[in-house]
Amino acid sequence: MPTTPLPRQPAPDLTADLVDGGTWRLADQSPEAFTLVVAYRGLHCPVCKSYLETLSDVRADYAERGVEVVAVSMDTAARARKARMDWAVEGVPIAYGMSRETARAWGLYLSEGIKDGEPDLFSEPGLFLVRPDGTLYYAAVNSAPWGRPHLPSFLKAVDFVEDNDYPARGEVEQGAA
Q: Are 129 and 47 within 8 A, CB to CB?
């Protein structure tokens, strides 16, 4: 069973190549408010296509709030490039090649492909907010393609957090309370 990293603790390392060139590193990010990391299943997932297209639609709204975004998967370079070409995800950095170990460190569920078009192994989705200091603020992981936070509504949560200096929650380890 995966263990999701705890809020208020350093987020796991995340380094991945970008479809548009270069390398994306969480450690290099310097957002005003948060880095929004969206882990997606990959090219084979129509729900991911819709989700990332919605992310593209609201990306500017997140940017206005000081939130930088990235979408990352375990896909190969070729599959990630095809997603970039076929999906309407303008302006969203698409990172690929996340390792099994990195996916596990982020608490993501892993699945084996069961039908044509699916890779042998891929991560299920997750959404994370990381503070500028590199600590995890929020984590939502899913064991299937559905049930993800609604990105337009999630903007209201970001507003609430920032307007009220609301602390990260869920930081108590099991057995510690």
A: no
Cβ–Cβ < 8 Å for 48, 145: yes
Quick: pLDDT tens for 41-62: 999 999 999 999 999 999 999 9
Answer for the pair 45, 74: CB distance below 8 angstroms, yes or no. no
pLDDT number for residue 148: 97
Task: Give the separation between CA 97 and CA 73, rounded to whole angstroms.
Answer: 6
- The encoded tokens of residue 133 equal 């200091």
Task: Answer for the pair 31, 70: CB distance below 8 angstroms, yes or no.
Answer: no
What is the DSSP secondary-structure string of 129-175?
Answer: EE-TTSBEEEEEE-SSSS----HHHHHHHHHHHHHHTPPP---SPTT
Strand partners, 110: 123
First-to-last C-alpha distance (Å) of the chain: 21
Which positions of the chain have pLDDT values less than 50?
A: none
Query: Where is 62: in which H helix or E strand?
Result: helix 46-64
DSSP 92-133: --EEE---HHHHHHTT--EEE--STT--SEEEPPEEEEE-TT
